[in-house]
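Morning, I've got a small favour to ask if you have a moment. It would help a lot if you went through both lines with me. I owe you a coffee for this, so here goes:
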Amino acid sequence: MATLSSKPNHVRSISLPGRSHPITQRVEEEINKLKSLSVAPTADSVYSGLFGLEKLYKRIDDLFSLQQTLCQSLDAEWVEDLLDKSVRLLDVCGTTRELVSQYKENVRDLQSSLRRRKGDSTTDDSVARFTSFSKKIKRDAKRLALNLKQMDQETAVAVLLDADQDTIAAIRALREANAVCISIFQILLSFLCVPLLKP
């Protein structure tokens, strides 16, 4: 008959971090795509950046609709910090949208004036109005870029000790999304500040 050994068997276990939720992985993929964009202020990089931001925020919306308990597990300080940055980004987005629409309107007026070109003073007036408007746009864009730079430098370093892995991943994703959003808007604003070519 077989006897049991009196030696204890040592069993080793490897503790691996759990896999992220697929939606969290999709958010991280979108963030990485946006980080790889060119930082040159070209029309293509602005378009790709804004289109990518739309896709990113749809993924983040999916992530937070999945994370129903997120607000319950976070400190109020974290929630306030994340909400504050998001609201400030929305303000910058709205102001930038107004600048772009004003820019488009002034370009249309200038094009219309140039098409009617009769050699009269209206063309010169339109060019002068557009030049002064573009200087105003540059000032406003530089002011917004400075606000974005300040937002980018503000970092919260608090650590969540009681949060689970999914909550930490969601917070990290939102913070990285804010940083990427700031860089995309900086590209857009620098695109608006490109100097006009002299005829």
